[in-house]
Write a structure and sequence with these properties.
Layout: E1 2-7, H1 10-17, H2 23-31, H3 34-45, E2 60-70, E3 75-88, E4 93-108, E5 113-118
Length: about 130
């Protein structure tokens, strides 16, 4: 499992703790920032590296109904919904498919950090079949 740490502006932490900001909006604001978006999309592409072609993920969405948060523990789960595009150069074929990944997260309100735990893709080896 890869853990990626992001800086969270102090005002967002205060709004979250004061009940003036939904955790889903905090996640969308922090993870959707330009530099952070690239990091997350690269992590999502890793889930499709073994699927053939050249996978590409440009963006993702966070739906408020797919976020759980435990304020006392400052932990939760989020579903990242995205579309993965594949391009198969030899056959000049491309496809576009929906996908989603569930990740755990923690909010460190003392140090203004968001820790997102991106689970490793499940890989099977043919040796596992015997």
């Amino acid at each position: 499992m890869a853990t990626v740490t992001f800086d969270v502006p102090n005002d967002l932490i205060k709004k979250l703790e004061g009940g003036k900001l939904a955790v889903s909006q905090l996640l969308a604001d922090v993870l959707g920032a330009d530099d952070n978006l690239e990091i997350i999309c690269a992590g999502l592409v890793a889930f499709h590296d073994g699927d053939g072609g050249s996978p590409e993920v440009e963006t993702f969405t966070i739906l408020p109904g797919e976020v759980t948060y435990h304020p006392g523990a400052h932990t939760g789960k989020v579903v990242l919904r995205y579309r993965v595009r594949f391009f198969f150069g030899c056959s000049d074929i491309s496809s576009d498919e929906p996908a989603n990944e569930k990740s755990d997260f923690e909010i460190d309100a003392v140090n203004n950090k968001l820790l997102l735990h991106i689970h490793d893709p499940i890989r099977r080896d043919t040796i596992d079949e015997f």
